[in-house]
Amino acid sequence: MAERFFYGFEAGEVEDRLRKVVSTPDASRPAIYKLNDAVALPGLPGLYDTSGRRIEEAAVRMISHGAPPILREKLYKGDRGQVCIPERLEPVHETMLFGGHLMKHYGHFIIESMSRLWARHLFPTLPILFTSPGKWRQPPAYGTDVIAALDLTPRTLRVDKPTIFREVVCPGTAIEYRWKAYSVADEPHTAVAEALDGTSQRTWRRPVYLTRSALSDDLRKSDAEPELEAQLSSRGFDVVRPEMLSLREQISLFEQAPLIVGMVGSALHTALFSRSSGTLAILNWGRGFEHYLLVDGVKRHRSYYIKSMQRHGEAGEYVMDVGRTLQLLEQAGLLAARTRLGIGG
Fold first, then answer.
1. Which of 107, 101, 104 has the alpha carbon at shortest distance from 132?
2. pLDDT one-digit tens code per residue, 111-161
3. pTM, whole model, 2 decimals?
4. Geometric angle at alpha carbon 168, from 165 and 172, rounded to 5°
5. Which of 129, 147, 171, 232 suits 316 as a labelling partner, its CA being 20 to 30 A distant?
6. What average pLDDT does the structure give for the chain?
7. Which pLDDT score, from 0 to 100, does residue 340 have?
């Protein structure tokens, strides 16, 4: 389990955040369900029964009954869980293993699309059924790399017409929505890292800052980020755009760099692939990092949660205080302190 450190939080705030998740991973494995007459519809996530109701065990995200009720409310907010089932369904009588929903978003793919793959070896002869969004025919490069690294390409099936599967083996998710992780969550990711292991085009020997400043439509960008980049670059950091790296290169970065600093976001989820015990500094606004706490539970790295940002409104602007960020990184011992000159009165 990772070591955790918190800087910039108010008294009692950290304890409140930690109470919202199960910090220690469950050493057992998720339940495995048997589904009959499960319907898959092109472009829709998960599986449905013949009346059009979402099958909870085969939803994109799952959550235990013991989780706080508010989490369940957030998970299904605005989702009726009901669809219209066409009269004509293509029947498949062969037993399938449900692999989950192949999401376009990098962070969600790593956390959620891979969350059922811990069970792939338990049913080695079964084809693996995935659902996918819209008319998306192929996953992005990192998704293709993951499926190929796990040697699942020959077993993969995605539906292109409304289909009813007479029997589906459905593993539970190894990471539950903002609440709980199982120890087996680590295995598919480290298996990918081992399969992709090899000589990288570069090595990472200096601290790294993962920038979001070049993303065109990212709501979590901060106008102050270029200033932070300049400050960290002057202190020996490499400033890296993770979206420009292959999955192999990102894994290499997380396994080699002595320190990785970045704002809460998808790129930091690459830590799940790492087989080493590096150090992460996660810049945040005091909320929204439950999944990082769950990742901590199954890894051996050190995580520093640096509260140096503010968020205005539910979907509002993200504001970074550069001076505060540098100060807290110094307090945490992650950045060498600089002498600050002042004029005495």
1. 101
2. 999 999 999 999 999 999 999 987 666 778 899 999 999 999 999 998 999
3. 0.93
4. 140
5. 232
6. 92
7. 54
Q: What's the length of the chain?
A: 345
pLDDT digits (tens, 9 = 90+) for 55-98: 999 999 999 888 989 998 888 887 778 999 999 999 999 999 99
CB of 217 within 8 A of CB of 245? no
Smallest CA-to-CA distance from 39 within 76, 80, 91, 117 is with 91
Query: What is the C-alpha to C-alpha distance for residues 201 and 197, in angstroms, rounded to an integer?
Result: 12
Q: Is the pLDDT of residue 342 over 80?
A: no
Burial class (CB in 10 A: 0-12, 13-18, 19+), 18: middle
Q: Are 165 and 130 in contact (CB under 8 A)?
A: no
Quick one: which of 90, 92, 83 has its CA closest to 51? 83
Q: What is the DSSP letter of 58?
A: G
**Cα 56 off chain centre by:** 21
* Per-residue buried b or exposed e for 44-72, using 16+ beta carbons within 10 Å of the residue's own CB: bbbbbbeeeebbebbbbbbbbeebeeebe
CA dist list (Å): 120 to 47, 126, 188: 18, 9, 9
CA-atom Rg of the chain in angstroms: 21
pLDDT class of 3 with cuts at 50, 70, 90: very high
pLDDT digits (tens, 9 = 90+) for 311-328: 876 656 788 999 999 999
For residues 202-223, b (16+ Cβ closer than 10 Å) or e, as one string? Answer: eebeebbbbbbeeeeeeebbbe
291 and 240 in contact (C-beta within 8 Å)? no
**pLDDT tens per residue, range 190-209:** 999 999 997 667 899 999 99
Of 30, 69, 37, 67, whose CA–CA distance to 53 is shortest?
Answer: 37
State residue 143 phi and psi, 5-degree precision: -70, -40
Cα 195–chain centre separation? 20
Q: Which residues pair with 168 in a beta bridge?
A: 35, 96
